[in-house]
Amino acid sequence: MSASPAVPALLAAGAAQGQPGGARLPRPSTTRFLLLILMVCAAAMFAAYWWLVELRGNWVTEQAVCLAWLGRGTGEITGFNGCITGVVLRQEGVVLLGPAAVLAAGLVVAAVSVPLLLRFWRSPRPPPESLAERFEACLAGTGAWAARTGNRRRPRLVAVRRGTRGEARAFGFYPRYWVLADPLLVAGSPGQLTAVLRHELAHLQARDVDRARLARSVWGVFFVLVAPALIISVARQGGLAWLTVGLRLLVLWALIHLTFQSLLRAREHEADLLAAATQAASPAGAQTEPLAAVLTQQLHGIRSLRRGRFPARLPAFARAHPTEAQRAATLAEPRRAARLAVPEFLSAGVAAGVIFQEVAFAVGAPLPGTAAYWITGAVVAVPVCLVTVTALWRHELAGPGPLRYRAAAAAGALLGAGLLAGSQLSPRAATNWRMVQLVVSPVLPANLSIWVAGAAGLAALSLAAVAGGTLFTLWALAVARRLGPAVPGERAVTAARRLATGLAVAVLAVPLGALFAVCRLAADSANDGPQGASIAGLLQSRTLLGGLAATAALAAAALIAASMIAAGAARRRQATAPERGRGTATGRGRAALPVAAGCAAVLLVPAAAWSAGAVVRHAITPGPPLTAGPGSNALPLLPPGIARGTGPIGPGGVCYAEGFLTARERADPAVMSLLGGLFRRTPDRALEAVGVALTQASLAQGAAAADVAVPAWLAAGFRCNIIASVSTSQETP
Amino acid sequence: MDRGDDPGDVRELIRSAVGQLAPDELPRFDEVWQAYLDNPRASTRVLTTGDAALGAGIDVLGSTLTPLVTAIASEALADLAREPVAGATHRLADRVRRLRRGRRGAAERRAALTGPAPAPGSLQHDVVQALILHIARESGCPDESAKAIAATLASVFAGADSPGPQTAPGPGAAPGQK
Q: Among residues A588, A608, A628, which one ends one of the domains?
């Protein structure tokens, strides 16, 4: 493919401010930075949950205060539920302090480390004269520095004694920057010196120095300080939870490290391309040797005094910087920098998987129920789409030729697999927390490990994740391929990409939320009894089926609209250049394909969910009967004293009974009547209001029944958790 | 190069060696010399301090000989100044062990470069060449380059027993080739 050296370079590298003709394509290093921060934030949320909620007994004292609402008379159930929700909201607010603290500490470390390191590295002597002169010449070649970078302070050249790791590096933190250089660089040829200095200045032009420093600092703060402390803290509670938490943090460390390395590699290519573009645009640039030529000489011409050392033997994905051969190849063909990185989809999936449940709990505090999962799906879909859809558009617009559908399918499959893997890498999935602490927040599941779902369940979840990721990626690629080339002008392309990203968020929200909701139900079955009925109920619920149908319709409409826009653009091109419009018939054929696929998707996607629900329902092993027999008002799950209404209802009974109740059974008047009567007979006055509400609900119809029953069931569950927590803490020596 | 008994100027001797090994670098010799004197690092740190791959990808220190030759020469001269030259042969092994043990002080290296050069008649060519070869190998450069550097520096310092003109690993040579 022919490549204009300047424009693809800018497209691939992302435009720096003030760069002529810059299309607003986020750079690969930007999306990788986002991934890294996401993963660290997810792990930090768990750390905050552990220290500030779990180790403080899940704030059971604050929750127990809410019990005073029950027995007050009018509005007691609403008041009790509101009180508990307030406690949980405060808990989730505190959990959000974790990422905030890690990011703030990372910022402080990044800012403070700059003067300290500069003091350590800096040579008391000025840089060699010829180096300083060449630096000023390169700086002048970049044009108006303030306009280009938005920073009035010009960078300064500083000679270093030791420690920079490279022969030169761009260094600093907003708003002060330096180019640190080994004075022995003057041994190099003029071409070498110019290439080195232009490259370092390009880092500053691209404004990636802060990002790299912040990423390094956040990474360091979490894994050097927070993660070891967390593992020690978990270990002190006993059991083997520290091992599973530690292993997950180790895997997360490796993933975040690899993401950091890929960020560094991406920014080096971007700096090379920007340096080459700046040199090409500079009047003085023509007089100096191009960076590509210097690199090529190094590869093929000049001597090398270095033996291959450890970093050189590392595989490409683990290296902090690209090899000279990769850099030369990218400079020769700038579109390589915009090529889709398939592993990036895996990283995006893992990051989203790690963070999903944490965000779901924060959202779930004020919004108990599945609505929290749909909202969380939309929230988490934003970074996922920013990474994946941007990568697809970048490849389509600036990459080395159209992306093969097979590669896109592989990337999508990795995205889905990453989502599932990430959900299991989350430290919260490390163990059954009820086995460690015996105190778990009412809105949080005690177990997130989907291994308890069995081989068949695991295979079904994996298949759904991989198939969903593949379908999503192929759809996003199809939209990008039609819409990208069809819209005229760079601003329109930017607007179209943003629109496509927004649509992708909307398309991903419900399926993503459904996947994680099912994962949670499947995992939590270890504590709360068989949840197959809940899963089947969820998969066959009108809300989910409607949401999936709407999602499929939206995806189809977007694809059809993109195809129509592409067809219109093709007609306009044909009108202006008839000899190029030979594919009209084929174009019509292509336009019909999205319509057919969209119609099929609207029917098939909800049908697949419903069928999966039916399969799950069919596979459910019947639990013990709720009643001792037809017409009986005895509950065999409960001790006889409780069932007869002569003993207080303790921590186990209601929770256990509720664990077996499906959503459908909770709406069953007979069940409500049965448990309502029991609650009213018990000596525990706090349950009387719940019993009365359930009895009333059993006599009402439709929505009126639900309005009364839902808060009553919620209050029963909250109360049960408090009693369980209090009795456990009293029993624990 | 035959200097007779004239000790000469160390700077000029090293310039001469660089002229033989990498004549294209001679125009920049003075600046490199001054930069090295400002921070006279050990020869082992010339190639390992800056990993070019971690910067702009332009391996300046890995592709130029002047900094490495200067560092190796300073280390060899500092070593020779510390011990009496007489009996150097049987003490070579001991010196090699100590070289491995730690870094020479920057002050010693600077003094070795700025002080008088050893009288050529006081040096045994083979011993000096063996010492420089060891230092060069320790610095991390390939064996062929180390041999060329050792032979050239030994000839400019020890003079009479020069093995003849040495071919530097010049432009176009692959790593490890002369």
A: A608
